[in-house]
Amino acid sequence: MDSDLRRARSHCRPLLISTRMRRAKLVLGIAALIIAMVFGAMVPSGFATAYETELSSTNQYQLEQHHTTAALAALDAEQTHNDGPATEGNWGGVDWTYNTRSKVLSIAPKKDATLVDNDGPFLTADDAELATKMDMRTVRFMHKVTITDASQLAYMFEGACSLNVVENLWRIQLSEISATQPLDLTSMFAYTAELHTDFARWKIGNRRIIAREMFRGSHANTFEYFHLPWGNIEDAYYMFAEMPNLLYIDFDSQLSESNFGVRNAEGMFYGCTALEQVIWNMSASNMINMNEMFKYCFSLLSVDFLSTQGSQQQSMTGMFEGCHHLQEVNFQDLPITPASMQVGSMFLDDNDVRAMTMSIATLRYLYDQNYHNPYDPSWALPCMDNAESLWTAKGQSRSWKQWMEDTALEDTEILTFTRVL
What we know:
InterPro entries: DUF285 (IPR005046), LRR_dom_sf (IPR032675). This is BspA family leucine-rich repeat surface protein. It comes from Bifidobacterium dolichotidis. The protein has helices at residues 3-11, 20-40, 45-54, 57-76, 127-135, 360-370, 400-405; strands at 88-91, 94-99, 104-107, 113-115, 138-141, 145-147, 165-167, 172-173, 183-184, 209-210, 233-235, 248-250, 277-279, 302-304, 328-330, 355-359, 391-393, 396-398, 414-419. The protein contains seven helices and 19 strands. The chain is elongated, with a radius of gyration of 24 Å. The longest helix is centred in the N-terminal third of the chain and has 21 residues, at 20-40. Helix 2 packs across helix 4. It is of the alpha/beta class. It has a domain at 294-420. Mean pLDDT is 81; it is low at 1-11, 13-28, 40-55, 70-75 and 77-81. The strands form four sheets. Strands 12-13-14-15-16-19-17-18 form an eight-stranded mixed beta sheet. Strands 1-2-3-5-7 form a five-stranded mixed beta sheet, with no helix packed on it.
């Protein structure tokens, strides 16, 4: 077996699950582990809540990762991977070739092609194809490839753990797909290496994009030159989750349009443990779900929702939970006031926050949410476990309660509150 392939396999996570049956088994396996953990341990009920409370968010995240990895490893054990990489093949009518020396895979190497009969994600038909998927470093679309179903690109490069470059995405043709049908790019680049690609010339038009877990687990460290079509993205569920190298993202520097079409941003940056700063300088007026958006981003220092102008968001549960180093949050352009808003655990374990910018209406709403149940605060504001914590604004230092009760302040007034250390 090629030594490079051995090294690739030894470092790749076992995430090459080639059929929907395997995905279903994965879900069932994880569910079984969780059920066993919750119900199997003989813990007296009176101690259960206390135990869960004491479990740190860091350990909780590691525990979740352990269970997920164990379930995936058990499934992958069924694959022997004894074959070397395949050097040619056909995927639903589209030829491809692979050079084991250059690690370059060429799609449609000789002529234009149409993808019609694919019966599963790319390079998952057998062990030899899986070996190719794990070994390849560059993918080139040499000629036009016309897809005939909006879901044919989902999971295409998932688990290609050595893949660094995908060239000529613009050669993927969408002319056979209805413009009203969402383009499904679910997990398309999940668990790849330090990836680089460019969407700039890809003629997507006004099609909506499903980007669920699109880059989850990828080792890419920036999206500065990807030219992602943000205005088309409707579903960003765990889109960038668990990317270990992502340090910084500034949406404003990448936008050709000012509006982000996303409705679902749940877990969008979940578990990006190296992420330090997010600047969100674009409108997201349709955004509804922001649950766990930055959960377990242990290195996150600041989030600035500039120009967000959100008005439909309904849930921010656990949004910053476990962000131990979070220092600054700007909610100036993200009003948080509707009665339907869920904000439980939004700042759980976030006692390092030093500055918050928000309207008085937002402050009053978040404070009120903490005290629906005085024995179980919802952690909708940071430092709620310390009633003596003071916050300075307008030259005065007060507790959250004192600021909230000041009737001289108008709901529309926006202040930056700095914590007294």
